Amino acid sequence: MTAIQPAIIRRRSPFMRKAFPYFLLAPAMIYLLGITLYPGIYALYRSTMTGKFKLEFVGLDNYRELIVDNAFWESLYNTLVLGSITLVIEFTIAMALAALVYRDPWVKAWRIIFLLPMLFMPSAVSFLWKLIFNDGRIISDLLTRLGSTFGNIDFMGSSGFARSVLVVTDVWQWTPFLFIIFVAGLQGMDKEVEEAARLDGASWSSIFFNISLPMIRPVIAIGLVLRGIDILTMFTPVHVITQGSPGGATETLSYFIYRTAFKSFEQGYASAASVLLLIATIVVSQTLVRRFFKSGTE
Amino acid sequence: MKNKVTSGTWVAKFILSLWAAACLLPIIFFASIALRPRNEIIAPTPIYFPTLTTETWSKIWDEWPIGTYFANSVMAVFGSVVICLLLGVPAAYALARYRFKGREDIGFYILSTKMMAPAAVAIPMFVLFGRLHILDTVWALMLIYAAANLSIVVWIIRSYMVDIPHEIEDAARTDGASDLRIMWSIIIPMCLPGIITAAVIAAIFAMNEYLFTLIIASKNAYPLSVALANFSGGSDGIIYNAIALVSFLAFFPALLLVISIQNHLSRGLTMGAVKG
To answer: Inter-chain contact A184–B267, Cβ cutoff 8 Å?
Structure first.
């Protein structure tokens, strides 16, 4: 990173010189504080209240209720399980494809094809897979043609199937995200190191696992952090495809908050969950983000 | 050795083709949904080779104000990108080109707003917009999309601005140019690719936004992303050909935008962290 030299500034008072960058930052900062500080404070306030129109102060009752609410814990569990499975699958596919493609002369063509799913709106992709799995019975039909005897499978009927549909939907749409980042990371690597190893007779796989992969570790970390955060707030496919069914088995934390706030209209209760989620995101973003984006500011 | 490499490339080509098929077949199927009559979408056995027709389109067009949805999307997305650039370019410039107290903390604070879960701030935003009487307006969508994407825009542009050598700036300064003038006539033109990349990524994310849109828009302000969730006609169930049609209506502009920045895509998606 280029070192930033002190600017030589003329015709300006020392105060203006010091204050100038803050003036440039002020509009963006005010806007962002408005959308982070205000919601945080409001959610905290609202979480101590109950009622739909006439609010009543109840102290920590919402939190007390929340920590013994099975639906809340189940949504947290689902978020983590669905999230980690999805992330592992996306990582594996994206890395495998990136490894195969990054020295390929056709890399640009592959990249365009692979990123197409990412260019549809997530709600559109959710409907597409809802149609393929359930409403259009495509998967059941294809399986029958291949000799399965299950007939029409109700993918919303069992928790395992319903969760798989969400995983497939997310993997199909967002594997390209990691793929594009990994390809860029691999292409940005110094070619000569690999060449030298190849001349020494190292096999393709040992070059990849012992040289290339460790070299792009920062890139992998950034990709996983960004994708991980998105996956942990998964909402759209849940809302479009499963609505949390069967029996809450696919309800994510985001959907839990949405349902309690905007379907059962228990905003105080949902605010308590929001506050906990906010605290979690602040902790995660402060630790992970600082660590992995550090090089960018130095 | 040589043999191994060639057979290796064939295996590689095969795997890549498999994934390409996995990407393309659902899209082709989706396109065929947009092009088939309603009674061939959900049949006792799926129809893989339907009658292709565009006749249903005029019916879809009559049934829903798709033009309005599209206009809502365009206005909300465009407006939010303008807000992001107006606020984001000066902020990025300050973070990239000045040394000042708290620079790093401010930078990370801006970045961390990207990590906020939309669900966690949905209720306060709903209440706030309700008090401002802008629920179900394009204005509210604009403001919320800008808020959601400002961090990305700042960080992408910042990463491009950091790369500009200081000599250029110093030369202008010795010629007597003011800081604002340097930003406007030197730095901004030089990192135009970064600004365009940021704008495209912000536009696509705004176009895709779902949760906030769902709670803000209830009828008048429907953009495409949420409008398609309402294409169900009572006993007809979900009307998939309308959904598919609208999906492609949003897909093609996104494709053109992304192709225009394809060499900057990885840098944009990682907010400037991965250059390539």
So the answer is: yes
